[in-house]
Amino acid sequence: MPRPRFLDPTDRGLSQLGQETLPVLYRHRLLTAGQLTQLLRPAATSTRYIRRQLEVLHGRGLVDASVRRTSRAGELLWYTTALGCEVVESGGELAPRAYRMTEDAAASQLQEHTLAVNNMGLAFVQHARRLGDECGPLDWDPEVAHRVRDGDSRLGDEAFLVPDAVLRYIHTYPTGDGGQQQRMLLTFFCEIDRATMSIARLAAKLHAYARYARYIPQPALGRGRPKAGGYRREAWRARYPSFPRVLLVLDGASPSQLAKRTDDLRALTAADARLQPAAADLQAGVTTLEQLRAHGPFTPIVTPVLGDPEPVDVLLRPSAAAASVA
Questions:
Q1: SS3 of 155, please?
Q2: How far apart are CA 174 and CA 11, in angstroms?
Q3: Has residue 119 got a pLDDT over 60?
Q4: Distance from CA of residue 325 to its chain's centroid?
Q5: 274 near 206, Cβ under 8 Å?
Q6: CB 242 within 8 A of CB 321
Q7: pLDDT at 164 over 90
Q8: Nearest to residue 30, comparing CAs of 94, 101, 85?
Q9: Fewer beta carbons below 10 Å: N end or C end of the chain?
């Protein structure tokens, strides 16, 4: 896959790698030199070159770093500064984001969660390269808000679904017809749980996804009252060719503990009468970050949250709704 040009390589005297690094940091908020190397220069045998580029970017005030809280060796976590964000946004290649990483946020307890989200995306990128599929350094987007309820702003967080990441992946597979190949666009709502979230809260997230799958927005007509008739299409259809699969990725505990969390989540959803009608609309599965990194998305590493517990791959089940692309 050709390397994308995010900005003019002559801007601010940066190398091509420097130009590639800045938008990736902007999009993914917090990355180690090792993660950046695997994303942008996977053939490199050390992080030396990417660290040199980060030093150049730091010298120009475009990036900064925070010490990783769990690292005894003082590993640095890199992010774009306000100036770096302005440079990326002025390039027009990425949609501007309201959220910007700050010094305090970079040093907060959210470090490991952010790194886990990026390790999940990195696993997809690495396996896409191996399989000849398409998933690049910018193909997952953290914390994209989706409205799931009508009403005024007093609903707060309950009015929005915010996945940890929305990931896009183009999978190429043989059709069995004379060697022809089909390309399938897959979109995932990804949630990362580092064994810090209660099972009840994980189940509540599934409720939010089920609500979004059926949410049809209604235009307000004075004092929050919906206009008679309203819309006729689900909100997700304006964003996605088919409803994204929901992938819960577990980390932060031993394999046996994560297996118990998976079993507990399945038991809770099976006993939840409110979730059963969602089974027809919601393709949701749970796996671990370790399995995803070791085996890849197209091996049976995913346990469906609803229905048959037999492990499957990230496709979860044959779906005519998956969008084909030329």
A1: helix
A2: 43
A3: yes
A4: 21
A5: no
A6: yes
A7: yes
A8: 101
A9: C
Contact in structure between 215 and 253 (CB atoms under 8 Å): no
Residue type at 275 in one-letter notation:
L
Closest by Cα among 161, 167, 164, 250 to 209: 161
- Convert the pLDDT of each residue in 183-223 to its tens digit: 999 999 999 999 999 999 999 899 999 999 999 988 765 55
Q: What is the pTM of this model?
A: 0.89
Helices 82-91 and 16-28 cross at an angle (nearest 10°) of 110
Structure tokens, 192: 């990362």
Are 118 and 35 a contacting pair, CB within 8 Å? yes
Distance CA 269, CA 58 (A): 48
Quickly tell me which residue has 């994303």 as its tokens: 39
Token output for 252: 């932060």
Encoded tokens for 15? 């190398």
Tokens encoding 138:
């910018």
Tokens representing 226? 């919906």
